[in-house]
Amino acid sequence: MTFFRNKTFSISIITLCVFALCIFLFTDSTYAFIEAASLWVRNYFGRYYLLLGLFCVVFITVIALLPIGKKRLGEVNDKPEYSRWAWIAMLYSAGMGAGILLRAVQEPVYMFINPPINTSATAETIALEYTFYQWGFTAWAFYGLFGLILAYYLYNKQRPVLLSSSISSFVVRTSVLRSLDVLVILTTVFGLVGAIGLGTTQISGGLNHLLPYTFSLKSTLLIVVLISILAFISVWKGVDKGIKIISTGNILATLVLLFIVVVHGDAWAILSRFAITIGRYVFDFIPLSLSLGAFNPGEEFLSDWTYYYWAFWLAWAPFTGVFIARISKGRTIRELLFGVMLIPSLGTFFWFSAFGEGAFSMLTEWGTYQGEFGNVFTSVFVYFNEFPLQSVINTMVVLLLISFLVTSVDSAVFVLSMFTDSGKLNPSKKMRLIWSIVIAIFTLAIVILGNVRTEIDVLIALQKLLIVTSLPFALLIPILCYFFVRDLQKS
To answer: Cα(first)–Cα(last) distance of the chain, in Å?
Structure first.
């Protein structure tokens, strides 16, 4: 078949097969290597990641505010291909997705019980402020930076939507450029498989809460197959008829769920906490980003949480950046940067404020805390058990989890297909089919292995692997920024 003649595709598939064999034949050794490598990256590059995160936020803010921020991505008269609502829905579903449900309650409560910083704010505000920090401007600055650079070279320099095409002005060998594209592909696959595995685990936890019997491995595998089929149908239809429609539905369902949480809780308290915490977050952003003084939670905490998050966001940034570039034609640089960094961040902040404030109130009412929200997979379902019509709401959460996973998979498969189909904006449907099958098989195999080798959390191992693969992207960012600014000045 013609797509097997594509070197990028062939190298990626061979590498994935080799990695899969290593996991199945040498599970313990592979896990030990991933664990050691991820710790090495966090120990030696953690502080660099903090500085890089602050640099990216400052860099894109300056670029957006300068006159060059008015420059359109594409021709002068090009109009945005998608409405602002559809654009935000798609980039949010691809960039965060099911993660906001996974951590909605567990993370704010953990930060409340274990305050990472020591300031004059209340424990509730500190908990939300640090949650904002880990899910806010920095993460979206990573995404926005890659999205901007890729969109600029795609629409203004007419280069294929590939990471290698954005740095083709470097004096480097073609093999090195191809290796970067392969690394993006592998990182996307590893992250996607991990996300599907974790998401299906949470879905199983929700179903166990809703139904009177325990779901087996077969049930989890059926959920994986269902998600893969729905994602394939979506990606087969393309961005307009598939990804956009499901992403828009996700945001509408998320808003309904958020409305239920706000109405059930103390709306004024939520709004007040949201406003106060945003003010502190913005004011404290630089000391938080540099981990200075009272804002230093300690190396152990940073390694387990912040370094981990930064590496995770960086690992997803090239893939998410490609998708953002694909849907951003016709927008100005300023609109892309501020739209990507501010709008999803503010939405995420309000989400965590609503769930966090509600969870804090529950802890106060209970008087004691016995770790009810400690399980990341079931915490949100435990939270909704305190609501009227909790079965209906939890059913809605399960459906939303499935829908978010579908949009993560379909957008990732679309990007993978672009990368292995010469950077085409609309990759062939054959390529979409083959990647859908590869992702489904790889996920099923990893889930099965995780249930067979219960002493090793294979899904967590894949997430830690992303920390390792994020390092080249982290080192590449300053170079990308330099050449991008140089090319902007020439244009």
So the answer is: 41
